Every structure is written in structure tokens, then in C-alpha cells.
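ok so I'm stuck.
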Amino acid sequence: MLYYFFRFLEQFDIPGSHMWAYISFRSLLTLILALIISAWFGERFIKWMKRRKIFETERDPEIDPFGVEKKGVPTMGGIIIIVSILIPVLLFGRIRNIYLILMIITTLWLGFLGFLDDYIKIFKRNKEGLKGKYKIIGQISIGFIVGLTLWLSPDAVVRENVNVRQQNQEIVVKHQKEAVKSLQTTIPFVKNHNLNYSEVLGFLGDYKVAAGWAIFVMMTILVVTAVSNGANLNDGMDGMCAGNSAIIGCALGILTYISSHIGYASYFDIMYIPHSEELVIFLCAFVGAMVGFLWYNAFPAQVFMGDTGSLTIGGIIGVCAVIIHKELLLPILCGIFFVESLSVIIQTQWFKIQKRKGKRVRVFRATPIHDNFRKLDKQLDATSTYILKGWPHRPFHESKITIRFWITTIILAALTIITLKIR
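replied:
not stuck anymore, here's the structure
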């Protein structure tokens, strides 16, 4: 809103109004405001929840290896994150931008889905929350909407081949192609590092483009569902998901800025995506909200984000990656999320297989994988056999586990960025 107001004032030569045209200026304002709102609103939200005794029992001292008691901690802290993202974006972003609209819809959609889950757990006293099938339907629906919009919207285009050359101390930009609808996506560690979904189905002849878009929509659904569930599983320790997500948001912000800048896109030989710079605004709000929320969510947590926050976070990351055609980099960038999901799948499937044979065999001490590192031997099921019972030899404090997961995510984020040059 303020963007349009100051751009209007610019025609009257009002001093300072021209600064609103710069993405760097608006991005920094967005980051700062999101952090301030998250810190200010977070304190009041926590007090309000405590007055109404809206709590979630995370852990009792009897079952925690370090005797940490977490009773009376408010949940639904994802509301803090959502508010801290949307207010700065609405103030400083170009609201008519198709990519920004998709990000706002994703935030509200998955935020509402997570809110329903938290509401059922707390107010209906149902620990299972919203049934899994309804969660999946909600995640598939937003993935379908995003994929279909990127397919049909005339504003969602890319310029696949862009050259920038130096001529007489002046940058000369040459476009080899006009902006077009594209089914290409970036793949890591490959010299010709673009994969065209339609070319995978080249044997379909004239129907390969339509089939390629169908694959793209299905990929969008898969990415949104996988990342949002991974973020949800990662939200099991104080500061874990918020810290990892802030790091991932920074890496996505760098990739988005490069993709939206015609010079940098040419230098790194990646697709130039016109008007995607507004995603940088959104991601700055996202990072600011995460850091501000971490002020209260770091150990010992004063508030939990709940599914209201974790599902929203995963959806934002997934949709943003799809928009900038970097979804195939997510297994690296969101490696922690995928390992968390994979550990649960391995644990449950292996146990089912062995149970049919009359055995009770588990792979890990506990899942998601971060719980494996804080489980005591006396907490294990005495009737089960554990393949990795001796790993680790002793439990770690959750702060140590959280920080080590952050460090791992930083390494993965750096690796994701340098894949643009390693081919």
C-alpha cells in the first residue's frame, strides 16, 4: 500500500519518494518491520494466551532426560509469524504482483489449515488434531491452485536465455528470447542444468507440452506437501524449526534476487524471471518474522508455533522454490526436513514389515530423527529390538541438538547456492 502511495508522490518530485522503487530499500524496511512486529506482538500474544490458559503440554520432567518441564506454554504461535509476515508485505509490496498474491494465499490457506489442527487439539481435547486426510487434501489443494495459476497466468513467464556483455564501460543487455511460459527447472551439478518437464515426455509428440504442464502441477503439489510436512515434523524442539526456516529463507532470498536480476541471472546462467523481485520482499518478511519469533521460541520456549506455524512455513518455502524454478534444489536446501520425514517413513514401514514376521524391530531409538538424540535407554520399549540402539551412546540436551541442526542447515544452504557455479 505504501509502495503505491510513494510512487504516486514521485511524480510530484517529493524528496525521498523515488527510493521506494528500489527493491533493496523496501526489502530492508520489510525485514526490520517484520522483526519488530514479531517481537512486539509476540509478547502480547503470549500474555493473552496465558491469561486464557490456552496451553499445550509439550513434555513432562518424568520423560525428559534432563528433567525439563514444559507445562503451561502457549501454542498457536504461528499466528505471530503470519501477522508479522503479512503486515509488512501488504505495506511495502506491490500487491498486484502475481507471485506475491500466490505467497499471500499460501500463507493464509496453510495457516488456516494449521489453525484448525491446533484448535481441535486444544479446545476439543483431541490429541490427534485434524485428521491426516484433511491435512493432505488441504496441502494438495493449495499445490494445485499454485501450479494451475503458474500454468495459466500470462504474468508468470521467464526469459530462458539472457546475455549481458560489457561494451565501452557500459552494460549492454541482450535478450535472445522474449518472455515465455516455461517448463524448465534448475537441476544441480549438471553443466546444462535445466530440465524441461515436457522433454521428459517427448514421445507424446504434440501432446508433450500439455503433459509437461500436468507433471509441473503434480510436482508443485508434491513439493508443497512434502516440505510442509517436513517442517511440521521438524518442529519438535525449542527453536528448531524457526531457526532452520530462517536460514532456508535467507538462501531462498539470495536465489530469488539472482533470478529477478537480469545481470546476475546471466552471470550465473540461470533463468531470468521478470517481476519475481517482489518475492524478495516476502522472504525478508519471512526471515524477520522467524528471527523475531525465535526470541520467544528459543530454549526454554515461551511459546510454540504449533501446526499453525509449521505447516505455513513449509508451504511458503515450497511455493517460493516452485515459482523461481528451483524446486529440485529443495532436497539439498531443506535436507533437514527431508531427513526428518524419511526417518519417520523408515521407522514405521520397517516396523510394519517386521511385525508381520512376528518381530518387533525398530530402526531408530525414536523418530523424527531429532528425538533419536535425546532418548534414554530406559525410555525405550523393552519388547522391541532397536537396530541403532547404540547411536548415540548418550542423550544430548535439546539446545545442543538444535544448534547442530542449524549448523547443518547453514552448510546445506551454502551448498545449494554454490550449485549455481559447480557443474
